[in-house]
Amino acid sequence: MNANFLQTPITYLKGVGPHRAQILQSELGIGTYQDLLNLFPNRYIDKTQYYTIGQLQRSNADVQIVGKIIHLKTVEQKKGKRLVATFVDDTGEMELVWFRGQKWIRENLKLNIPYVIFGRCNWYNGKFSMPHPEMELLTEHEKGLKVTMQPIYPSTEKLGNSGITNRVINKLQQQLFIETKGQFRETLSDSLLHDLKLISKSEALFNIHFPKNQSFLAKAQFRLKFEELFFIQFQLISKKMLRKQKIKGFNFDQVGERFNDFYKNHLPFELTGAQKRVIKEIRADLGSNAQMNRLLQGDVGSGKTIVALMIMLLAIDNDFQACLMAPTEILANQHFNGIKELLEDMGVRIALLTGSTKKSERNIIHQQLESGELHILIGTHALLEDKVKYKNLGLAIVDEQHRFGVAQRSKLWHKNEFPPHILVMTATPIPRTLAMSLYGDLDISVIDELPPGRKAIKTVHRYDSNRLKVFGFIKDEIKKGRQIYVVYPLIQESEALDYKDLMDGYESIVRDFPLPDYQISIVHGKMKPADKDYEMERFVKGETQIMVATTVIEVGVNVPNASVMIIESAERFGLSQLHQLRGRVGRGADQSYCILMTSHKLSSEAKTRLETMVRTNDGFEIAEVDLKLRGPGDLMGTQQSGILNLKIADIVKDNDILKTARHYAIKILKEDPGLEKNENLTIRHTYAQIVKQKNIWNYIS
Ligand code: ADP
Ligand code: MG
């Protein structure tokens, strides 16, 4: 079928008038034949199966049963009347119930004659009942065309109200297949079809809409999922290859004086093997003549900062400037202070720029950046402002990158005529397979080793009723000279209540840990930056023993002497946040603890989260559980990527297909980057369509 034909507006399809066309467009985004063709069912109902009443389980969803109505009655209720039929087969009895259209049903239903009923079964008042069943006389059912697997299409309330039911969509699909004769252009190459034993495009589309049985359906789904994931991977990988060819990067070929000096004389500890490996990987990028675009993943405390610092020294050694952007002021401050200390006496000029930098200071920074006097600029979003111009920015590092949007990151690219090398760092481990889809066009480095001497953090779950014991434990730890975090949730929707919780909690802690024996800091988002810094400073210096805070301290804050993290209302936090928070302790040589405080009321998902935290410290394992619990939708970064718009594949469940798709995409692009070989012509054609239409699914035929 020719591609243009599928671009025909949907109004031309028999059965679609202007009114329906408009609703199809607004509710399902269907404007053309092609859009309709690519509206895939969400699920299928297996109508090859018949149940007896005796076989019904409370967990059954949709069932099909043959039996007779032996009795019909109207039941009056406060809420209104309902019509109830007693339906029986040889194995038992159940009820059919109608709330609407009772008159018509009363007049038309036949008693004691076999019907095939279909619908969703409920367990209600000790009986199975089926509200508003689909019904057909057994004699009619046997005459009719057997639909075996009934597709269920996505629907909305408005569609239903406008009479565009599932049955109507199904009819429209049939009409579409009649008009197109079910012939669609192949989009994958013969060799892929052959190697992976895929069915053809036409067969796949037919069987996704009208599956003959489970096995045909499975083949159709596999083929279409593969196709979807293949072209996404193909796009990511070819972009990356193109970037490497086209975008020339600054060449950092010098491992110069400053880098060496720091390595030999200033490095406060031996680098871990993983840190050394990652620095090597990055150095290879920087000397490759291509622009670096690398993601550095490493669990909290794995030591990403020192890697960032050493890479910045490489930039300076090659006469370039570098910047480091952090998501919060606290973190930017901390990076600035830490790095300044490490670079003491090395003659590196470094400045801090955040929202609270004074105007006069700001002007000086702007000038020194443009003149090249400044080597390193550390800061928050403030770095992205247009006024911030560099003499020659060679490297931009983004810490905790999931906090920034793609748009913000890309601003960094445009700080120069030529984009600087970019290193983004994250402590939110992203399961590898997901990373492939989210960041498939980035290179990835992983620090998978913690600095030596760290003791694994002990994590326990305690109920609020045990608070006194927990307070006793805190007192013991403080006696040993340790410091404590107490963190409260702050969720936007319930902000006012959350602040109240925080302040109540703070007061109760002040009561139980009185002056002058105990000094307490508090930090939350409503405080002025200067006050926050002051409180933070006191805690960092060890002047206060307890830090009461909202999640503002979640990212990056480093106080090695803090050994206990208490998370209040832990059931309200997501897994990755809990893991991040826990990462604030366990940074020194002492045994550290994380105490998850909750009420007794816990959802099963919350229980799983808490159990996971207690069981493991491994960020990647936690990320996998998180992904399974929540799906990719809620994970950082996914919103910005296309993976949520997948039409048929599921990034979690179809992981194996994703890996296969990626493997073949890489193989084909390596062997034939220009897709010039005959065998790749089909892929080339399809890909050109995708690029033109900016949509993976707008190409078919
Ligand atoms: P993150 O990866 O979470 O950003 P940091 O860079 O803040 O971790 O490092 C955490 C702590 O570990 C810091 O106190 C840092 O000085 C220390 N550290 C980093 N690398 C090493 C190492 N190789 N040996 C010992 N301590 C290290
Ligand atoms: Mg960090």
UniProtKB/TrEMBL annotation:
<keyword id="KW-0227">DNA damage</keyword>
<dbReference type="InterPro" id="IPR004609">
    <property type="entry name" value="ATP-dep_DNA_helicase_RecG"/>
</dbReference>
<dbReference type="InterPro" id="IPR047112">
    <property type="entry name" value="RecG/Mfd"/>
</dbReference>
<keyword id="KW-0378">Hydrolase</keyword>
<dbReference type="InterPro" id="IPR012340">
    <property type="entry name" value="NA-bd_OB-fold"/>
</dbReference>
<keyword id="KW-0233">DNA recombination</keyword>
<keyword id="KW-0067">ATP-binding</keyword>
<dbReference type="Pfam" id="PF00270">
    <property type="entry name" value="DEAD"/>
</dbReference>
<comment type="function">
    <text>Plays a critical role in recombination and DNA repair. Helps process Holliday junction intermediates to mature products by catalyzing branch migration. Has replication fork regression activity, unwinds stalled or blocked replication forks to make a HJ that can be resolved. Has a DNA unwinding activity characteristic of a DNA helicase with 3'-5' polarity.</text>
</comment>
<protein>
    <recommendedName>
        <fullName>ATP-dependent DNA helicase RecG</fullName>
        <ecNumber>5.6.2.4</ecNumber>
    </recommendedName>
</protein>
<dbReference type="GO" id="GO:0016787">
    <property type="term" value="F:hydrolase activity"/>
</dbReference>
<keyword id="KW-0347">Helicase</keyword>
<keyword id="KW-0238">DNA-binding</keyword>
<dbReference type="Pfam" id="PF19833">
    <property type="entry name" value="RecG_dom3_C"/>
</dbReference>
<dbReference type="InterPro" id="IPR027417">
    <property type="entry name" value="P-loop_NTPase"/>
</dbReference>
<dbReference type="InterPro" id="IPR033454">
    <property type="entry name" value="RecG_wedge"/>
</dbReference>
<dbReference type="InterPro" id="IPR011545">
    <property type="entry name" value="DEAD/DEAH_box_helicase_dom"/>
</dbReference>
<keyword id="KW-0234">DNA repair</keyword>
<comment type="similarity">
    <text>Belongs to the helicase family. RecG subfamily.</text>
</comment>
<dbReference type="Pfam" id="PF17191">
    <property type="entry name" value="RecG_wedge"/>
</dbReference>
<dbReference type="InterPro" id="IPR045562">
    <property type="entry name" value="RecG_dom3_C"/>
</dbReference>
<keyword id="KW-0547">Nucleotide-binding</keyword>
<dbReference type="InterPro" id="IPR014001">
    <property type="entry name" value="Helicase_ATP-bd"/>
</dbReference>
<dbReference type="GO" id="GO:0003678">
    <property type="term" value="F:DNA helicase activity"/>
</dbReference>
<feature type="domain" description="Helicase C-terminal">
    <location>
        <begin position="473"/>
        <end position="633"/>
    </location>
</feature>
<feature type="domain" description="Helicase ATP-binding">
    <location>
        <begin position="285"/>
        <end position="447"/>
    </location>
</feature>
<dbReference type="Pfam" id="PF00271">
    <property type="entry name" value="Helicase_C"/>
</dbReference>
<dbReference type="InterPro" id="IPR001650">
    <property type="entry name" value="Helicase_C-like"/>
</dbReference>
<keyword id="KW-0413">Isomerase</keyword>
